[in-house]
Amino acid sequence: MKIGSTKLPGNLFLAPMADVTNLAFRLLCKEHGADFTYTEMISADALVNENRKSVLKSLSAPEEGAFGIQLVGSKPETLSAAALFVEEEYKPAVIDVNLGCPARQIRDTGCGSALLEKPDKIYAILKELSENLGERTPISAKIRLLESEKKTLEIARLIEKAGASALTVHGRTAKEMYSGKSKLLPIKAIKEELSIPIIANGDIRDEKSAAEALEFTGCDGLMIGRAARGNPFIFRRIRNFLETGEYLISEKDSESKAGFKSEERQKPWEMREKKRGEKREENPLAEKLQIRQFQDFETYVKLLEKYELLNSTNLRIHAHWFTKGLRGSRQLRERINNLNDSKAIIELMKAVSEDQCKK
Ligand SMILES: Cc1cc2nc3c(=O)[nH]c(=O)nc-3n(C[C@H](O)[C@H](O)[C@H](O)COP(=O)(O)O)c2cc1C
To answer: Exposed, middle or buried: residue 297 (CB in 10 Å: 0-12, 13-18, 19+)?
Structure first.
């Protein structure tokens, strides 16, 4: 798939997520097969004033390869100045504009999803960015749905007309926040209407939901957000399923080492769907997957250290996600909560991981 002149290796995107998609996490997801990643949203206002040093700390590194920077702002001239600055400094492959964030503090400044109520402003922003940068660095946008499908389509058309090279659509309105189910039908309608690549987003959490979203909407790409937290391996699973129709439980190497039988392949995912509190069966494959989660956490920590991004708040949140679904995870998370420095969290995770390996 291509965004403007930028050719991407595939169509699986990691969603921009504040406090999640830092450089370390993006590298981890790429290692697991994410084709393209975006930074979390960066305030255009912060970029054009002296605060920019802190927001740009370890924003990217040469080994990251092609990546996108997402900007959030409301004034065309500020967004344009911010985009020119990051373009010059970091050479992103794509610059994305956040037109969907429903958070109050963002909406109150007229940014994110507040802009969806101001089509003229959206047009002005994207036109300015496309004219100033578009030939060198393609511009993309990310929206949520509006209450009316007609208005959503109008906004989508306007985004294309203004010169954007791709559009990501999260199938919920801003009012819905994260409630209910993300809708595929309006995304399909946008895909049918526009010529630029459309990326479907919302509730893609496993092989089945990914294949369904791609097939039903006919979209060019898929963007995965919450399901990747603590589980970057999801990209490998989904890619494998889309390419072969097979469920992949583990990388081929470790699979053969572990000697899993094919009929065992689906078990852990079935187990995950079991109701809370229901007794889980012993499953050696699940144990292997738990070890993988710890290994991924360990890699995440190493990358945080390498890029000087380690801090206890971020580490605690990620440790919670990396332990999700593990046996005894609730108690483990309580223990993590009681620790207030990174070193102690890393040591606890290491000890639990070593315990798992011994089993
Ligand atoms: C913690 C968190 C932070 C997010 N931050 C951003 C952001 O910075 N920019 C953005 O466009 N969307 C942001 N989102 C929305 C996601 O990119 C995505 O659209 C949404 O989570 C739906 O996809 P999912 O169901 O795969 O999670 C955020 C979502 C979460 C949960």
So the answer is: buried
Dump pLDDT digits (tens) for 341-353: 999 999 999 999 9
- Roughly how many angstroms between the first and final C-alpha of the chain, as a whole number? 44
* CA–CA distance, 86 with 43 (Å, rounded to integer): 12
Active site residue 101: yes
Nearest to 139 by CA among 6, 13, 37: 6
- Enumerate the domain spans of the chain: 2-242, 262-358
* Cα Rg of the chain, angstroms: 21
CA of 102 to the centre of ligand 1 (A): 10
Q: What is the pLDDT of residues 79-124, one digit of tens each?
A: 999 999 999 999 999 999 999 999 999 999 999 999 999 999 999 9
Name the active-site residue from 29, 101, 111, 219: 101
State the pairing for strand pair 36-43/221-224: unpaired
Find the 171 Cα to ligand 1 centroid distance in Å.
Answer: 12
Give the number of other Cβ atoms within 10 Å of residue 338's Cβ. Answer: 9
Question: Model confidence over 42-86: pLDDT tens digits?
Answer: 999 999 987 687 778 899 999 999 999 999 999 999 999 999 999
Ligand 1, atom nearest to 201 Cα: 23
CATH class of 2-242: alpha beta
Q: Tell me the two tokens of residue 164.
A: 């954007």
Mean pLDDT of all residues in the chain? 89
Within the chain, strands assigned E span 2-3, 6-7, 12-14, 36-43, 68-72, 94-99, 139-145, 166-173, 198-201, 221-224
